[in-house]
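Hi there, hope your week has been kind to you so far. Would you mind checking whether the tokens look sensible for this chain? I owe you a coffee for this, so here goes:
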Amino acid sequence: MPKYFYSCKECDHSFRAYHGAKEKLKNCPQCDTIDGLVRQVNKVFISKQALSDAKKVGELTKEFIEDNREILKDIKKEFKENEYSGENNTD
């Protein structure tokens, strides 16, 4: 089961969770904020055991990219929405 890291936009609580690749947590377990969680991009970790289990580094890297593609897409969308709404403007 894949491991994911989340942080809350409201209380800055960070934690890791194990769940399927298509699942996504939304509510913060610390402050109960609804839709307050942001899934963080995971770092690539390739163990020597994984390499010896007949998977090539390129295959593992490709899996990592595919697992994080949706996360990056969501982050990009959120950034654009905040930018156009003026939330990040200092004017």
Q: What stands out?
A: Residues 3-85 form one domain. The chain has two helices and three strands.
